[in-house]
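ok, trying the design again with the full structure, not the truncated one.
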């Protein structure tokens, strides 16, 4: 019953910005710690940014000071604002609980930063 649907990806040039949204549904998801993850071909799926229910956030060093994660308490969406995008940010971005559960992975949304 838990479902995460990612949206907002696209193809941009370096230095541009994107806003990703994760529509979260299912019992108690609004009380869970949530995060955005990403995976590039041949690479593991890594944490990009996490936000705890209480509001504490954590970012991967590679995106610190460029990305921001927050959640909309009314819609239960988890937002990732990505600024100053770089080619190395190219990946499929996923949302999930923090830590993630295997059965919750969705289709993700593709972000391509083309130099």
């Amino acid at each position: 019953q838990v479902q995460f649907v990612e949206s907002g990806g696209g193809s941009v040039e370096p230095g541009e910005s994107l806003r990703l949204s994760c529509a979260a549904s299912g019992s108690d998801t609004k009380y869970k710690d949530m995060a955005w993850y990403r995976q590039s071909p041949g690479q593991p799926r890594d944490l990009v940014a996490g936000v705890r229910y209480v509001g504490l956030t954590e970012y991967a060093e590679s995106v610190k000071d460029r990305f921001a994660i927050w959640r909309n308490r009314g819609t239960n969406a988890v937002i990732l604002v990505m600024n100053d995008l770089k080619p190395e940010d190219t990946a499929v971005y996923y949302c999930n609980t923090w830590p993630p559960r295997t059965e919750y992975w969705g289709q993700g949304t593709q972000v391509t930063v083309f130099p």
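Keeping the full-length input from now on. The CA atoms of residues 53 and 67 lie 18 Å apart.
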